[in-house]
């Protein structure tokens, strides 16, 4: 009897130059495209002083760095100790979270936040806790799990507390007109997404789960920007021309100008936008100066159809 033919099954083995998961790689590509688009948009814009566009560009770059560094590192093939690589990844994560908080402060006009949650105080608190609770324990014990478990307890508590504070600060907006209601929900959702970073990291490095969920905060902010643009676009019918671009109005000035042209008084605008009466008057004053008018009635006469 002829010998039985032995069957072999060959399974190809792929070697990757990086440990980055394909989901994270896809996210990096998408954010990279957004960065290129935003950079070209700023370069072609006549209004080079629009701070909102630059803020969004910086936010996109930070999220790209977060995903890239956490996707590639730690990498044993790179020179230097892994200790430095972990410091780099954790540092960019902290910077990204603090910048997102500051970004939302600007979007929601939170000019005087609680002293504990002021940006300078947050930077100091997180920097000191990072050095004392992560870098020093990690350096002395050479145990990432030990250092991580000690350090992340404080950011978890801080992030949950901030979510409650942020909600209590802007909760009144959900009772107002639809535009600001949607912006509020998007802002709260982005905060909820970002607090998942310390929570998930505490239990380990689950790259394909943690990074997409955290990066959802960036895409929620992107939705806020798109929604704000569509709101202004929808309301341009009340203008004779695009005075926002013509007179270099900021996004907030644009929104207030539209409401002034709808003959809303400053108190109504203040309630609609959840900003103080004095802030509305200040924005209105800037609008009148830029458009070369003296008061609200002249502004309406000049631009209202």
What does this structure look like?
It is a single chain. With 305 residues, the protein is mainly α. It has two domains: 197 residues; 65 residues, Arc Repressor Mutant, subunit A, CATH 1.10.10.10. It contains 14 helices and no strands. About 5% of the residues have low confidence.
Short description:
Helix content is 71%, strand content 0%. It is mostly helical and 305 residues long. The chain folds into two domains: 22-218; 239-303, Arc Repressor Mutant, subunit A (Orthogonal Bundle), CATH 1.10.10.10.
Helical run tally:
14
Percentage of residues in DSSP E strands: under 5%
Main sheet properties: none
Q: What Rg is obtained from the alpha carbons, in whole angstroms?
A: 25 Å
- Total beta strand runs: 0
Give the domain tally. Answer: 2
Which stretches of 5+ consecutive residues score pLDDT under 50? 5-18
The residue-averaged pLDDT reads 78
**Helix and strand succession?**
HHHHHHHHHHHHHH
Proportion in helices: over 70%
**Termini separation:** 99 Å
What's the oligomerization state?
single chain
Anisotropy-based shape: elongated
Counting helices, strands and paired strands, the structural category is mainly alpha
Secondary-structure topology with pairs:
Layout: H1 22-44, H2 51-72, H3 82-107, H4 119-141, H5 144-151, H6 153-170, H7 178-194, H8 196-202, H9 207-234, H10 243-246, H11 251-261, H12 266-273, H13 277-290, H14 296-303
Helix pairs in contact: 1-2, 1-9, 2-3, 2-9, 3-4, 4-5, 6-7, 6-8, 7-9, 8-9, 11-13, 12-13
